Amino acid sequence: MPAILRRAVLAATTTVAVVAAARRSFAQGTAPTRVSGGPSYPFTLPPLPYAFTANEPTIDAQTMELHHDKHHAAYVANLNAAVKDHPQVASMPLAEMLGRLAELPEAIRAAVRNNGGGHANHSMFWTVMGGKGGDPEGAVGTAIARDFGSFAALKADFAKAGAGQFGSGWAMVLVDKAGKLSLVARPNQDSPLMDGKTVLFGNDVWEHAYYLKYQNRRPDYLAAWWNVIDWGAIQQRYQAAMAGTLSI
Ligand code: MN
After folding, report:
1. Which residues does 189 contact at the CB level (< 8 Å), separation at least 6?
2. How much distance in Å is there from the Cα of 125 to the middle of ligand 1?
């Protein structure tokens, strides 16, 4: 083998060995790898699956454009910047990064928490809107009635969770592997994936999500938001969650 080629092969082999060793050291950690698949480095901004105007009049087009093209894009860019020099972290799917935050290098842990959480939360958020609202049907409708009492009761509890979240954050409905639903509020961009939990759907209560139209009236935004819910998309997430294939 020519010397120059041999050096290239050696260099490549060394790189592979280093990455493999890094993966082993994380694999020996305490947190189980529960979620596979889903977004991974280099992360990209998922296209909005409908027009900026699709959620009007509930959410104005300018808010949708700024929220997606500026806010979510910034989380993606900052997440990529945080992990680019950490191949052992960059090799993990996003849900695994969030689920194993405590094992990540301290220097990038907060950046992954904030921007990785932001990327996961917003990637979910766009897909559960763009619909026509109405009452939930099928398996999700049944689960809501079973676990919250009624859709009206869920909306009341969700409004309380969202309005009661001090500062920025999210109100979310979680789903476990058996299909059981529960309600949580999370501050900032904290993702339930950090606790190994799966999000069925959720609403963003950061002011950037509603301030142009609703200003300080967060409860009005929370109440109106149900008008643009896509129950068909949520039904698909529900089935995927129970099949173990919902990664974000
Ligand atoms: Mn947001």
Report:
1. 75, 113, 114, 115, 117, 118, 121, 170
2. 9
pLDDT tens across 104-124, in order?
A: 999 999 999 999 999 999 999
Domain that includes residue 99, residue range: 61-248
Count the domains in the chain: 1
Q: Which residue has the tokens 């501050």?
A: 187
- Mean pLDDT is lowest, of 13-22, 82-91, 176-185, 194-203, for 13-22
Residue 115 domain-assigned? yes
Distance 23 CA to ligand 1 centre (A): 32
Inside any domain, residue 32: no
Q: What is the pTM of this model?
A: 0.86
Whether residue 18 lies inside any domain: the answer is no
What tens digit of pLDDT does each residue of 34-63 get? 445 689 999 999 999 999 999 999 999 999
Alpha carbon of 122 to ligand 1 centroid (Å): 6
Indicate which CATH number applies to the domain containing 100: 3.55.40.20
Q: Compute the distance from residue 154 Cα to the ligand 1 centre, in Å.
A: 22
Cα gap 30→155, rounded to integer Å = 37
